[in-house]
Amino acid sequence: DKAITIKVNIPKNTPKILADEVRVAQVLLNLIDNAIKYTENKGLITISAKEQNKFVQVDVSDTGIGIPEKDLPRLFERFYRVDKARSRELGGTGLGLSIVKHIVSAHHGDVSVQSILGQGSTFSFTIPKV
Fold first, then answer.
1. CB neighbours of 53 closer than 8 A, spacing ≥ 6?
2. Ordered strands of the 5-9 beta sheet
3. Range 15-48 burial, b when 16+ CB lie within 10 A, else e
4. β-strand partners of 83
5. CB contact set of 61 (below 8 Å; sequence gap of 6+)
6. Sequential pLDDT tens for the chain (130 residues)
7. Can you tell me the distance from the alpha carbon of 99 to that of 106, in angstroms, rounded to the nearest whole number?
8. What distance lies between CA 115 and its chain's CA centroid?
9. Do 94 and 79 form a contact (C-beta atoms < 8 A)?
10. What secondary structure, in 3-state letters, does 14-54 show?
11. Could you identify which of 47, 63, 75, 116 might form a hypothetical disulfide with 43, taking C-beta atoms 3.0 to 4.6 angstroms apart as the criterion?
12. Among candidates 123, 129, 127, which has minimal Cα distance to 59?
């Protein structure tokens, strides 16, 4: 409906990770769902992966509305919402990013976000490679 383009950039030689496939899929689905929700019509979402030292880093980037800098430190807290009115409109419980953080932590990885208000966001997570 929003005519969003999704690009995937995962090199064939990306190292393997040892992970719970269902849980990592849950992480990806949550990040992609958020990217779709907060990206305007005809925007772009890019999913990429790369080797980063002893980890594989996965990035989900969008050209969406971005997140105010003051909200970034609290983004992965349970029930935290940047814009409560918009969140109600789009649905959700405020638990998604907290779940992402816990799943990635359980895999001995890390999760982070970079965002510029009005330009988009990149959510990144790492999982140790095999």
1. none
2. 5-9, 44-52, 55-62, 120-128, 111-116
3. bebebeeebbeebeebbbebbbbbbeeebebbbb
4. none
5. 35, 45, 46, 47, 48, 120, 121, 122, 123
6. 899 999 999 999 999 999 999 999 999 999 999 999 999 999 999 999 999 999 999 999 999 999 999 999 888 888 777 765 555 455 666 788 999 999 999 999 999 999 999 999 999 999 999 9
7. 10
8. 11
9. yes
10. CCCECCCHHHHHHHHHHHHHHHHHCCCCCCEEEEEEEEECC
11. 63
12. 123
The pTM (predicted TM-score) of the whole model is: 0.90
Q: Of 101, 34, 94, give the one whose Cα is nearest residue 64.
A: 34
111/60 Cα distance (integer angstroms): 11
- Residue in the structure block whose two tokens are 């959700």: 92
